[in-house]
Design goal:
The structure is a single chain. The protein is an alpha/beta fold and 393 residues long. It has 14 helices and 12 strands. The strands form 2 sheets. It has a 7-stranded mixed β-sheet, sandwiched between helices. A 5-stranded mixed β-sheet has the order 8-9-12-11-10. Helix 3 (61-74) runs parallel beside helix 10 (244-254). The radius of gyration is 22 Å and the shape is globular. The N and C termini lie far apart (57 Å).
């Protein structure tokens, strides 16, 4: 079955729901058992890791429907939901490490994932080493210790968009007995199939493309069958739960992912190509561009691109960057991405990294190409560059 069909059909069963197309939205905490024997059976089944409807925090048909939908498209065995992408990252990391363990985290990772490893996990005796996103497999092998449990990858990187050789790195990690954990938010489950490339645990900020409308916080973690019990237990121990209305909106957004994402991709590529012609720009970071350093790997492993990419400006006064940002009308200044609207974010890779050094002195910007007409987006950016140049003198 093609992904477009899975997106429309998975996670719902109108025949068991009075013919109603969408899964019901259950607002539930307490769930009553009809008998003592039924209660005992529910407890036993839940203890074995089976799905049960015994308490709202453990899931309802609303949550199960979205889990099945994401899992069907991403290609794993089981999926769990979380109240945010960061909650998904934190729970996934904690599920597979104990005191004295070690994590290898890619240096281009999402900044809050770094903070989990610098501020939270060290309190529990877990150490992290950062590594170059362009690391050779042999060099990754040299960093793996006897106590390394997780090799964490993110491809492309959140701000600088390096594409990693996931299959080669996964092979090295698995030989050493490590779990390969990936942030798959950029490509979504539609444009990268993590489990076909050696990933064991795939994380997404569902807030972004799954929801698609900038109105819900949500995280997902999809795993192989082998690695799901540890995730499920940690999720339960931390009391992770997602609201039914948020889950409903995420289901609704997911149903149109295969229609929205190609337009984000087309707009993003067009804008990236336009930026390359601007004299104020030092470099454009978009793996779908043929001259991008990661293009060959992207073309080999990915099925498409999202609307998120980076622009490295030439060195200019901060006032010029401020004038550029303040002049924009269609590109809002804000965190997150993946919604229908265009966004810009000021980023600072040179101030965050530890394993690698960012070589540019100018300001780095991250753009999300929304669903506006690209001609209007370009007109907006042109006005902003006029303001940039006036402020730069």
């Amino acid at each position: 079955m093609k992904d477009e069909t899975k997106i429309v059909t998975a996670g719902r069963d109108p025949k068991s729901n009075f013919g109603i197309v969408n899964p019901p939205v259950y607002h539930a905490s307490t769930v009553l058992a009809p008998t003592y024997a039924a209660w005992k059976e529910l407890r036993e089944r839940s203890g074995k890791g089976e799905r049960t409807i015994a308490y709202g925090r453990r899931g309802t048909p609303t949550q199960f429907g979205l889990e099945d939908l994401v899992n069907a498209v991403e290609g794993g065995d089981r999926c769990a939901l979380f109240p945010s992408g960061l909650a998904a990252i934190t729970t996934a990391m904690m599920a597979y490490v104990s005191q004295g363990d070690h994590i290898l985290l890619v240096d281009s990772a999402y900044a809050p994932a770094r903070r989990v490893c610098t501020e939270l996990l060290p309190r529990y005796g877990v150490e992290t080493t950062w590594y170059d996103p362009l690391i050779a497999p042999a060099d990754l092998a040299a960093l793996i210790r006897p106590n390394t449990r997780i090799v964490y990858v993110e491809s492309p990187g959140s701000q600088t968009f390096e594409v990693m050789d996931i299959p080669a790195l996964a092979e090295v990690a698995h030989k050493a007995g490590c779990i390969v954990m990936m942030d798959n938010t950029w490509a979504s489950p539609l444009y990268f199939k993590p489990f076909e490339h050696g990933v064991d645990v795939s994380i997404q900020a569902g807030t972004k493309y799954i929801v698609g409308h900038s109105d819900v916080m949500l995280g997902t973690v999809t795993t192989t069958e082998e690695h799901f019990p540890s995730l499920r237990k940690m999720s339960g121990d931390l009391g992770m739960s997602t609201g039914p209305d948020d889950v409903y909106l995420a289901q609704r957004g997911m149903r149109t992912l295969h229609v929205r994402l190609p337009q984000h991709m087309a707009n993003g590529i067009r804008l990236a190509e336009w930026f390359k012609g601007r004299p104020e720009v030092e470099r454009v970071m978009h793996p779908a561009l043929p001259d991008d350093p990661g293009h060959a790997l992207w073309k080999r492993d990915f099925l498409g691109a999202s609307g998120l990419f980076g622009v490295q400006l030439k060195k200019a006064p901060e006032a010029a960057t401020a004038a550029f940002i303040d002049e924009l009308e269609l590109f809002g200044l804000g965190a997150s991405w993946g919604g229908y609207e265009s966004l810009v974010l000021v980023t600072s890779p040179h101030g965050v990294r530890t394993a690698t050094k960012w070589p540019y002195e100018g300001q780095t910007l991250r753009f999300h190409a929304g669903l506006e007409a690209p001609e209007d987006q370009i007109e907006d950016l042109t006005r902003a560059f006029d303001a940039f140049n006036r402020a730069a003198g």
